[in-house]
Amino acid sequence: MDGLTCKRGLAAQVLSGSLCFFMAGAAWSAPARDTAQQRTAPQQKSAPLPKGVTLGPSAEGITEYRLANGLKVLLFPDNSRPTVTVNVTYLVGSRHENYGETGMAHLLEHLLFKGTKKNPDITGQFARRGMDFNGTTSLDRTNYYEVFQASPDNLDWALQMEADRMVNSPVAQKDLASEMTVVRNEFESGENSPSQVLFKRMQSVAYDWHSYGRSTIGNRSDIENVKIANLQAFYRTYYQPDNAVLLVAGKFEPNATLAQINRLFGAIPKPKRALPQFWTVEPTQDGERSFAVRRQGDMQIVAVGYKIPSDLQQESEALGFASEILRDAPNGRLHKLLVETGKASQVFSFGQTGYAPGLQFYGAVVKKGEPIEPVREALLDAVEGFAKRPPLEEEMERVRRSWLNTIERSVNDAQAFGVALSEAIALGDWRLYFLGRERIKEVKAEQVAASAGRYFVRSNRVTGTFIPEDTPVRAVIPAAPSVETVMKDYKPSDSSLVSEDFDPSQANIMKRTTLTTLGGVKLALLPKKNRGETVTVHLYQHMGDEKNLFGKGMVSALSSAMLMRGTSQYTRAQLADAFDKLKMTGGPTSFQTTREHLPEALKLAAHVLREPAFPAAEFEQLRKQILVGLEASRAEPQSVASRALSTHFDQYPRGDIRHANTLEEDLEDVKAARLEDIQAFHRDYYNTNPAQMAIVGDFDQKEIVPLVDKLFGNWKAPANVAPVLRKHAEVAPISKTLDTPDKENGFYLARMNLDLNLEDADYPALMLANYVFGEGGLKSRLMDRIRQKEGLSYGGGSDLSPGDLDRAGSFSISAIAAPQNLRKLDSAVRDELARAVKGGFTAEELADAKSGLMQQRIQNRTNDAALASGWTSYLYRGRTYDWSAQFEAKLMAVTLPQLNAAFRKAIDPARLSVVMAGDQSKAGDKGNKTP
Fold first, then answer.
1. Alpha helices in 502-571 (DSSP H)
2. What is the DSSP annotation of 96-115?
3. Largest CA distance in the chain
4. What is the per-residue pLDDT for 415?
5. At a CB cut-off of 8 Å and minimum separation 6, what does 87 contact?
6. Which residues of 113-146 are buried (b: 16+ CB within 10 A; e: fewer)?
7. Alpha helix (H) ranges present in 582-615?
């Protein structure tokens, strides 16, 4: 009852120098085929097939039959030896196990030797009949076989026993209790082997998602704790005639045996259940991986693994040739390179593949204490350089001759033949066994080199090293205690956290807010009782004008970024601690704290704003971080598309504060920035005159007003301050696709400029129309089309941006999508936009938009940070929350004709500029690529 005999056998035998063909791997794909044509099949008269039995294909002495319940039967009569092999292969292996069930396929294999009601002592019968028997489990299949002296009695017993245990095994708790410890001991035996441990780790490191990444023996805790109900359900699902193949090979009478099989197995009902479907595909590995195992041991092992195609792929044989040419002793390349030179004591290679793409292993055993790094380097060079050093003709012929000889001998070993056929059966068709032999004859050296070059590459590599240590140090993670244990001594404290029921209406906000001016600071104070006595502060500063800010865009940004990196009194670390002590979250111009700490928090914020130290080391650190971030954005689809569209709409010269920098211009400006320029900018431009400040939350107004006046009221900068306005301009539309190689996702961005101001009569209607079209979430027209109906995008939306002090408005649309879907997305967006302009929106959509927008605005006013920033924005523009109430009244008054008329007037789909960024090799579109 071995689980995956060859895999575990190899791991054990590798160290002693013996060879085991890996039946589940690419190495198996080549060896272990046939000599059936040399067999002497008994001559017999054709007989009518038993009722319900249909004839299937035949090949090289083997004939397939199908029973009415779905069981496949393979008969291979052979009188050359007086023995019979009965082999049942179930198309279930460790890859079919679910979470918490690892090792279950193998454990179930053990339990099926425990007997049934009709056959209570299966192993005793094996002994009394002198039968050689076993069961093996692999990634894709489980098989059970008996090899015995040919006789009708032995064959009848073996067939009835296999039919019986197919569906009548009790899979009982009492048997699990005893057999679990046996399987656990098998697991423990494997844990003693350095090579087996290394290969198990390599499986798990190599795979992210596919179940080939789990060892067939399973995880210890799963073996110990699997529930009998899970085993029984697994058994009932997979141990059924439509999921099994029965092979009878040897000396027997075919017609009588087929009739007996039909009587015994045909009586099992055809199952009504549908077999589970598996759809996980392991993603392409995108970089080399490495790991080490540190345990007690007396040798070192270095191994590399590469993902390779399924055994169903024709390349399987070519990769098998590469494996043998490298591994063979004494003629293999690795043997000559590492063993004959004394660098390693042994080399090995084997495949672990099957129905799905698997792994090809190469490795070497190194004496403890000797250098292993030179062995690793030589191993990698030999394997990954194989394509550059194609096989010689003598190497190809040596492998071909060896494999064909092995195939010729293989059928003489009934046990090996049954297991080998089981692997072909697990792939879907037993005739693959013979197809592989024919392919071996045709494999060319250039095919071997080409296949090796495709898969034996660094980005597809996993490197594992077994490092022997006498006293390995490990971090043992304790099991999580029960929640009841954790909570048993908990005693809740009395809570003093209270808050008021605040009315977020504009009328109440106006009633509760005090507006005042302190020097150059317009101040809004809204005291309210908050849970935790929290209070929020927002400061809106203004610096420079259109002329004096020319050429200072990057300096301005860098000076702001340097504020929290140290002051005249604090280092960067000390400043962070000071913020924590005062319970300040945020920065010096926008933060939350508590009533108790507000006075000191305001003092600290003023100190940071007025006395930054601009440490040279911090500046260089910041510069480096920004440069790395900018370079990282070079191929990011969203960044690439955004910059390209901003550049297209840019109408200002280089150096203008409104200019849209290219990536190269940003890089140039960051590199050119000097610390003295930043210091000068702070000295000349930073101020709070003019400025707007809002304080919302739990505070003492009488205490705070004079403090704000003292800290901020009279701070004025030498540089003139004036609003920097933008001008509306019509921009010719473009449609551009940019290539961002090796990116799985793409980005779509579209924009048109609008001659629009916040005070325009049409703006409330446009705001509602935009909500219906693309701002209203999953039920917006845009998202309903591109996500709900067509499944093109996870996220997207539209944005309407009016001018506030000017008329430079815009309408934009953005979405993410796979590169191959960007064209479809563009078509859907344009179609939906044209449909909205032409057909308009509905009364129901308008009502929903009013409801949604109003509720969002009310919710925003319940948030202290939104209230505070709202106040500073209104104060700057000479407005109050009365304006907000008036605007909402206009929103609610919009009629359907006004809504549709405003949208048609403002939005012209022909003016839409579109930039898409994505990997064009994935899109399959080379024609419109812009580098």
1. 506-512, 553-562
2. G--TT-TTHHHHHHHHTTS-
3. 115
4. 60
5. 143, 144, 145, 246, 247, 249, 418, 419, 421, 422
6. bbbbeebeebeebbeebebebbbbbbbbbbbbbb
7. 598-610
Q: Quickly state the pLDDT bin for 22 (edges 50, 70, 90).
A: very low
Give the Cα-Cα-Cα angle 575, 581, 587 (nearest 5 degrees).
Answer: 50
Place of tokens 């029984």: 232
Q: DSSP character for 612? A: B
Distance CA 449, CA 396 (A): 11
**Token pair for residue 545?**
């004008």
Q: Beta strand 735-739 with 913-918: parallel, antiparallel or unpaired?
A: parallel
- Could you check whether the bond before residue 330 is cis, i.e. omega within 30 degrees of 0? yes
Please identify which residue in the block is written with the tokens 């059966």: 425
478 burial type by CB count under 10 A (0-12 exposed, 13-18 middle, 19+ buried):
exposed
Do the Cβ atoms of 174 and 275 come closer than 8 Å? no
The b/e string for 609-647 (b: 16+ C-beta within 10 A; e otherwise) is bbebbbbeebbeebbeebeeeeeeeebbbbbbbbbbbbe
Q: What is the pLDDT of residue 129?
A: 96
Inter-axis angle of helices 881-893 and 864-876, to 10 degrees? Answer: 100
Read off the pLDDT band of 137 (50, 70, 90).
Answer: very high
Q: Residues 6 or more apart from 865 whose CB is under 8 A from it?
A: 536, 538, 590, 592
With both helix axes pointing from N to C terminus, report the angle between 763-770 and 881-893 in degrees, rounded to the nearest 10. Answer: 70
Burial of 741 (0-12, 13-18, 19+ CB in 10 A): exposed
**From CA 32, how far away is CA 420, in angstroms rounded?**
6
Residue 638 has pLDDT above 50, yes or no: yes
| Residue of 21, 743, 706 lying closest to 423 (CA atoms) | 21
* Measured torsion, CA atoms of residues 290, 295, 301, 303, in degrees rounded to the nearest 10: -30
Confidence grade of residue 1 (pLDDT, cut at 50, 70, 90)? low
- Measured CA to CA in angstroms, residue 44 lies from 27, 41, 248, 395 at distances of 38, 9, 17, 45
Asked if residues 705 and 528 have their Cβ atoms less than 8 Å apart, the reply is no
How many helices and strands in the chain, by DSSP H and E? 35, 24
Task: Please tell me whether residue 132 adopts helix, strand or coil conformation.
Answer: strand
Beta-sheet pairing, 796-801 with 691-697: unpaired
Q: Which stretches within 582-636 are classed as H helix?
A: 598-610, 616-632
**Mean pLDDT across the chain, nearest whole number?**
92
Among 277, 271, 253, CA closest to 68: 271
Tell me the three state secondary structure of residue 924.
coil
CA 270: distance to chain centroid? 39
Whole-angstrom Cα distance, residue 480 to residue 792?
42
pLDDT per position as a tens digit, 410-450:
777 656 676 678 889 999 999 999 999 999 999 999 999 99
Identify the pLDDT of residue 6: 34
Strand pairing of 461-468 and 808-817?
Answer: unpaired
| Structure tokens that stand for 155 in this block | 């064959």
User: How far lies 19's CA from each of 27, 158, 319, 402, 848, in Å?
Assistant: 11, 32, 18, 13, 73
Query: Which runs of consecutive H residues, i.e. helices, occur in 636-762?
Result: 637-649, 663-672, 675-685, 701-712
Backbone CA torsion sign across 34, 40, 46, 52: negative
Whole-angstrom Cα distance, residue 589 to residue 865?
12
Question: Count of residues for the chain?
Answer: 931
DSSP 435-467: HHHHHHHH--HHHHHHHHHHHSSGGGEEEEEEE
Give yes or no for residue 32 having a pLDDT over 80: no
Query: Tokens 């920033």 identify what position?
Result: 869
d(CA 565, CA 715): 22
- As a whole number of angstroms, the distance between CA 805 and CA 789 comes to 40
Output the six-digit token pair for 270.
């055809």
